[in-house]
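EI: anyone free to look at a 520-residue chain?
SC: sure, send it
EI:
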Amino acid sequence: MGFLKNIATVSMLTFLSRILGFLRDVLIAALLGAGSVADAFFVALKLPNFFRSLTAEGAFNAAFIPLFGRAVSEDGKSSAREFASSVLSVMILILFGFISLTQIFMPFLMYAFAPGFSEDPSRFNLAIDLTRITFPYLLFVSLVALLGGVLNSFNKFAAAASTPIIFNVCLIGGLLILSPLVETPGHGLAWGVAIAGVVQFLWLIIACRRIDMVFFLRWPRVTPQIKRLFKLVIPGAIGAGVIQINSLLGIFIASFLPAGAVSFLFYADRLTQLPLGVIGVAIGTVILPALTRQISHGDHVSALETMNRSIELGLVFSVPAGLGLLFLSSPIVELLFQRGAFDVATSKATALALSAYAPGLPAYFMIKVLAPGFFARGDTVTPVKIAGLCVMGNLILSIIFVQFFDHVGIALATSISAWVSVALLLGALTRREFLKIDGRLGWSLLGIFLSSAGMLVGLFLGRWVITNTFSDTFFEKCVALGVLIITCIFVYGLIAVLTGVVSLSKIKDFKRENGDYLDP
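SC: here you go
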């Protein structure tokens, strides 16, 4: 299966999961709104997901996939299976101990991550209760990351990419089925998170069996390979999770703001995550195994080609998506969320946060593409240094901006720090000659700029027509926004084709030039 087809597979499944995620968020918004229960649940959801992004999806995959891929190519499938089984055993022991400690010291953990909640004892205690329910999810989702890394190394992306679908189905079930049976809807959602981890793990166990990768638990042994893995994971944890660290800093600061601030940021971030998850995460997932194979074969020309085309592909999608979310933030939030407990004031506050997150969307894409350029070479130190600088910058900017813009300042600081991270990553890759911007990418950047300009003209003209034509009924709002988005996509796509940014010949050339390394 080729590089672009792998991206398409992951993107389609991620898109489906995001649609289900929006259905989940619409239900949460209607039933919980942006009050104390919503704030408490979003913190309970964020904390295990924060550690997951560091120990699992980010740093773990960045370190494990290259090591596992080399074990397969150099020592064979049986040796690679032994390595993965050893990692599985060590992970279970470490994570079980860590989760046990967090259950005991959860009040102190809450003081560390959401100290502002302590001013409201009911919200503070509810957040502790819900996080104790959700935190075991960390164990299972980390094991899911291991199994997903194994599958991705064999170019089997579908099973792992479908796990977010399972997650969203479980949360919707928790909200609709369990909520009437427990104390609050937040408790129903929290139990949905815990159940989702178990189901995702079982799903990938079955998928691994299909490729003859059956793992056995044994007493954990710290082998040289395990030492190498964790030597890479520890510094890479911060480097790979820079966006999540910034997001958690946002919760830390927002916890001192009036009730609802955490929820405003959560809903806005969810909208930003749709294009990022559909394309950005897909590219980041597929590029790492491809780069690892190319570099291990000593084909640095193909590695440079992969980096350039991945940047190009990411920007083609992320720039118009960011502009669309920026200039359509109000109608999008109003249409998706404004009902039930999610009132007009909540809608406006969320739209303002979205408009601050949106300019950073292309940067979030670029980080997903640029970081594998280091990870594929076993370098997790450089990204962690860059991440550390950006996290400190984000914290300082958030503290300053929140004085003037409330919760919107937190979102704005996150966007700025993401762009700083991109600039530093680009500089480091270029200096080491891991990345050389080719002429095709330079021309594509110009074409993306012209296409985006044309899209903005269509957007402003379309909004003027809609404002003077359509009424305020929900149906007409849906039609108007849908027509406007489709028109803007058409205009952008047309100019992109005319300028040569998008063409069938480019896709064929890329597959022909890189085909030897895009399939194992």
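EI: The chain is about 85% helix and 0% strand.
SC: 👍
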